[in-house]
Amino acid sequence: MGKDKEQIELALSDFAENFFYLGGQPFSLDDYPHMRRIYNTEAKKVVMKFSRQTAKSTSLANILLARALMKPNFKQLYVSPAVAQTQEFVRDKLEPVIKNSPLIRDYFVDAHMVQNVFKKEFKNGSVINMRYALLNADRIRGISSDVCLFDETQDLRKDVIGVIEETMSRSVTKRSIYAGTPKRTKGTLADLWFKSSQNEYAIKCEACNHWNILGPDNIGANHLICSKCGNKLDLRKAKGQWVSTYEHMKDRPKMEGYRVCLLHFAHSPWVNWQDDVIYKMENQSTALFNNETLGLEYDSGAIPITKEEVIAACNPDFRMSPNPDKHSVGRPTIMGIDYGPVNSEKSHTCISIVQEREGKLQVVYAKKFLGKEADYSYIHEEIPKIFKKWNCSLLASDYGMGEAPNSEFRNRLGLEKVWPYQHLPTQKEPVRYNPKMRAYTMNKNWVMNKFFTMLKKGKLRLPNYQDIEPMTTDIRNVIIEYDEDKNKEKYTNVGPDDFVHATLFGSMALMMLTDSLRENLQ
């Protein structure tokens, strides 16, 4: 028998740099060493947050191709929101590397291999499928994959992503890459980013040894500067390393996240400092400049509360538990409930138990009923048990879609124990009782303003952030829209907001019943 051939292990970045050609030249990351870790990460889930002009599409194309050529019989799926985006990616980024790289052209493709805009086949059995899916995954059903790469993730729906990832159900690899350019601090890409390791590339200043995470303070009149001493930063000479910046999490996130912005490419031949940085900083909106130049989320006045303000509203000393402790005994306690449809991905039945604590409202327990628990037969049995355990005085409930379950709870808890609430946008009074409806009606803008004001002023406290963090997404899903025709603002939501309304209903009832809290209704 012949001698075994020696196998050489190559990282994806090494493979791309050794065998890929761009614009007639060998591809190289020598001037952009921070990109190598992004190419080579083996994390099962990776968030890649890019600003514009940072070689996002080139990097994604190289990662797809390198993995396809290095792994025989490997299946990958690329998905963007729109057909034009997918076609542009294939035409401008994927195909030029295939056609201009001798290794690929001579050894991995021939006339028998499918090479169209939606599918690329290679002689080693690997396949890259390209699709688009803005509102649904209908065009993707039937495909199987080992890796799903989502581009322009900020414009994709989370529920669509989940359906697409089912294409990996029979794969032993199962890797997802979520790439895009950030917008606001809420949305598909932002939600993934804030659950990741949030890696930032820190650069050491050669003059003062300060480590810089590139942002607005590093923008000098003519070049990058150290945010501490003001001296020039040369990324080709300075020492750099990736650092995780996540916080408020119990454990290290399993999902890797990387932010890459234009400032990391300040020395690139395609970047003109005055036109691409200074002019845009001085003339673009703050939101646009943060998103497209710095790769940072930015919320304008459309949000009623920031993530930092939500964290500040949390009581770090109060740990949430499904069971009341000795400090809960004898306190005024209300359970708020917002009903959600069974089997919905957008809304779920949620309860929030609120107590009076030293003249303030404290959320002591919250729960969403998911999966099998979302069935109303389960909810009808479970809610009375929780209600009794916490010795609640009332169930402050959702009237809008909840009259059927409200009737059930009146039978189980007692007629006087259920107080329904309903938002009425046209009502002038903040709150009033409607005897025909047997419900309290509320001016939506007034009560929503009150809810967010109380959170910001510390009059409504949440549990420790680590415990309540999944629920806080609901708070940040609420936005304010301006109606130009009516010259009015209104509250709406960009995702589930069940916890907000459950807490709001419970808080309203508690303030109406408790002397020390009633002044908050003014």
How would you sum up this structure, described in words?
The protein contains 15 helices and 23 strands. 30% of the residues lie in helices and 22% in strands. By secondary structure, it is α/β, with parallel strands linked by helices. A hairpin with a 5-residue loop joins strand 6 (119-121) and strand 7 (127-132). It is globular and about 80 Å long. It has helices at 12-19, 34-40, 56-70, 83-100, 102-107, 158-164, 188-193, 273-283, 286-292, 307-312, 376-389, 403-413, 444-457, 465-476, 498-513; strands at residues 21-22, 25-26, 45-50, 75-80, 115-116, 119-121, 127-132, 147-150, 175-180, 199-204, 211-213, 240-244, 256-260, 333-338, 350-357, 360-368, 394-398, 418-424, 431-434, 439-443, 460-461, 478-483, 488-493. The strands form 5 sheets. An 8-stranded mixed beta sheet has the order 5-6-7-4-8-9-3-13. The protein has an 8-stranded mixed beta sheet with strand order 19-20-18-17-14-15-16-21, sandwiched between helices. The protein starts with 11 loop residues before the first helix and ends in a 9-residue tail after the last helix. Helix 1 (12-19) packs across helix 3 (56-70) and helix 3 (56-70) packs across helix 4 (83-100). It has 2 domains: 15-198 and 246-260, Rossmann fold (3-Layer(aba) Sandwich); 307-521, 2-Layer Sandwich (Nucleotidyltransferase, domain 5).
